[in-house]
């Protein structure tokens, strides 16, 4: 789904430095309770900037939280960590939550990261993109169910199917396929593959938003919690989200401080050009940083679950309330 080209050595370095920041001074902060926060990918990326910066600024410490930012060994381990209770909360994808629930995992979305779905079709600068024009083309994709499902929905809007295109799966990054001319277009998001097209490809890519062609506008990334932990620690969960919202609002309002905090925490896994551009590309996804920044939208989830059911991606869809809750978001952001 996103640029992941930093390698195994840097992955280990990122895991090792995940707890560098001490936050607020001990004498200024209340008693601290450790909260283990597992991430969506083994290598640090710019999406983590709000909580990296918030930890540095002491926002979590002020809420009595000793935040432990943990990189999983592999991408498949995020939901394993959360479902087994090895992590209390997670930064993950909406479909990881849906698939985990399909397997009976005790996980639930508790907040959103961004206000919509910024996935779509990406082409080289100047490329005219239409769904109809994809017929007969080669499309660089990631080999996961939701990528194929979103592509199927887009093609369906023009009465096409995946049989009308040639899909070329990338191991971890579709952008090189496009830059090297091995495919005509790729799938991706504006603040990952789109970012890499700018930083590595030195161009402004063409972009065709999936939401304009039959794909639900549900945000891709989510904050999630272990259900047993949430039930046992409702106040702590609220304080975690309160500190996270404050961190996000601060990071949005002070865009230069985020990459600097990232550099301090993950210097060995740091591509300054990419991280700076990625955060610049991510900020617009939050829209206005108001009280509803984290609030999960019922209509978004209804559209997503309807699409999931229609495409047969899970054995059965559950009632919406089993996937997400806004119960831990402090009303008014206070």
Automatic annotation (TrEMBL):
Pathway: Cofactor biosynthesis; thiamine diphosphate biosynthesis
Keyword Membrane assigned: no
Catalytic activity, as annotated: N(6)-(pyridoxal phosphate)-L-lysyl-[4-amino-5-hydroxymethyl-2-methylpyrimidine phosphate synthase] + L-histidyl-[4-amino-5-hydroxymethyl-2-methylpyrimidine phosphate synthase] + 2 Fe(3+) + 4 H2O = L-lysyl-[4-amino-5-hydroxymethyl-2-methylpyrimidine phosphate synthase] + (2S)-2-amino-5-hydroxy-4-oxopentanoyl-[4-amino-5-hydroxymethyl-2-methylpyrimidine phosphate synthase] + 4-amino-2-methyl-5-(phosphooxymethyl)pyrimidine + 3-oxopropanoate + 2 Fe(2+) + 2 H(+)
Keyword annotations: Iron, Metal-binding, Pyridoxal phosphate, Signal, Thiamine biosynthesis, Transferase
Span of the signal peptide: 1-26
Entry superkingdom: Bacteria
SsuA/THI5-like domain: residues covered: 49-257
Protein name: Thiamine pyrimidine synthase
Species the sequence originates in: Labrys miyagiensis
Taxonomy of the source species: Bacteria, Pseudomonadati, Pseudomonadota, Alphaproteobacteria, Hyphomicrobiales
């Amino acid at each position: 789904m996103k640029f992941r080209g930093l390698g195994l050595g840097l992955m280990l370095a990122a895991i090792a430095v995940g707890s560098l920041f001490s936050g607020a001074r001990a004498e200024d902060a209340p008693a601290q309770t450790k909260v283990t926060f597992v991430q969506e990918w083994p290598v640090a990326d710019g999406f983590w900037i709000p909580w990296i910066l918030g930890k540095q600024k002491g926002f979590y410490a002020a809420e009595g939280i000793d935040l432990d930012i943990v990189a999983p060994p592999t991408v498949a381990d995020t939901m394993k960590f959360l479902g087994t209770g090895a992590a209390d909360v997670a930064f993950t994808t909406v479909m990881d939550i849906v698939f985990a629930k399909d397997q009976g995992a005790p996980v639930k979305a508790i907040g959103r990261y961004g206000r919509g779905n910024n996935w779509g079709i990406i082409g080289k600068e100047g490329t005219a993109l239409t769904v109809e024009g994809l017929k007969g083309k080669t499309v660089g994709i990631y080999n996961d169910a939701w990528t194929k499902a979103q592509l199927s929905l887009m093609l369906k809007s023009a009465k096409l199917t995946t049989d009308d295109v040639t899909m070329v799966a990338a191991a971890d990054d579709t952008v090189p396929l496009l830059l090297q001319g091995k495919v005509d277009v790729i799938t991706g998001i504006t603040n990952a593959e789109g970012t890499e097209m700018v930083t590595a490809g030195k161009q402004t890519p063409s972009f065709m938003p999936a939401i304009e062609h039959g794909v639900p506008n549900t945000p891709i990334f989510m904050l999630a919690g272990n259900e047993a932990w949430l039930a046992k620690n409702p106040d702590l969960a609220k304080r975690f989200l309160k500190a996270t919202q404050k961190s996000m609002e601060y990071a949005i309002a002070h865009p230069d401080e985020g990459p600097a905090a990232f550099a301090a925490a993950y210097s060995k896994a740091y591509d300054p050009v990419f991280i700076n551009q990625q955060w610049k590309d991510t900020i617009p996804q939050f829209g206005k940083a108001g009280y509803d920044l984290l609030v999960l939208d019922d209509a978004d989830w209804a559209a997503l679950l309807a699409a999931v059911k229609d495409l047969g991606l899970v054995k059965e869809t559950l009632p919406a309330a089993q996937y997400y809750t806004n119960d831990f978001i402090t009303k008014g952001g206070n």
